[in-house]
Amino acid sequence: MDKQQLKKIISSDLYRYNGKISKKKLIKLFFSNPGFRYTYLLRKCKFHKQNKNFGLRFLIFKVFLKNYSIKYGYEISEETTIGNGLYINHMGGIVVNSEAIIGNNVNLTTGVVIGQTNRGIKKGVPEIGNKVWIGAHSVIVGKIKIGNNVLIAPNSFVNFDVPDDSIVIGNPASIKYKEDATEQYIVNLI
């Protein structure tokens, strides 16, 4: 990843929060929104780690990332593959396995767990598609694929593949087909 790619990714994250991209908006959101602040630091750490730049800047970003991880309850590694336009809705209790893959325009809310299963045919971690909204306290585990344009309702437990254009509801979860499942849930798409 080069600096231009980093700038593009951070701009896409910024756009998801307010529909605008400017230095002024970036600074304002950095200091006022914990989700954006954490995402920004996560992107910076990933950039420096991928470029094997373990100097002072990496150390500073890593210390701040760890501090905010503890303060806000986010546990997302800079090693996690995350697409453009990540939106973290609220503070508290978001855990994402470092080997999970998350697509573009994904919303994470309070209490979300994207985790690993260590046994059985679903041993592994989830792959989340593009344009996915994950509701509060949802758990997504195992080597499964969540399609594009999927809404996972709050308190859902998902341990199976989910096709595109779906709403997942409940525990145990059930799938309902809906053509534009995330309309009005995911805004400011990149």
Automatic annotation (TrEMBL):
- One annotated Gene Ontology cellular component of this protein: cytoplasm
Top EC class for this record: transferase
User: Which Gene3D superfamilies does the record match to this protein?
Assistant: Hexapeptide repeat proteins (2.160.10.10)
GO terms, biological process = cysteine biosynthetic process from serine
- Gene Ontology molecular function: serine O-acetyltransferase activity
Which reaction does this enzyme catalyse, per its entry?
A: L-serine + acetyl-CoA = O-acetyl-L-serine + CoA
Protein family (similarity comment): Belongs to the transferase hexapeptide repeat family.
Name of the featured protein: Serine acetyltransferase
Organism, as annotated: Aerococcus urinaeequi
Q: Species lineage, top-down?
A: Bacteria, Bacillati, Bacillota, Bacilli, Lactobacillales
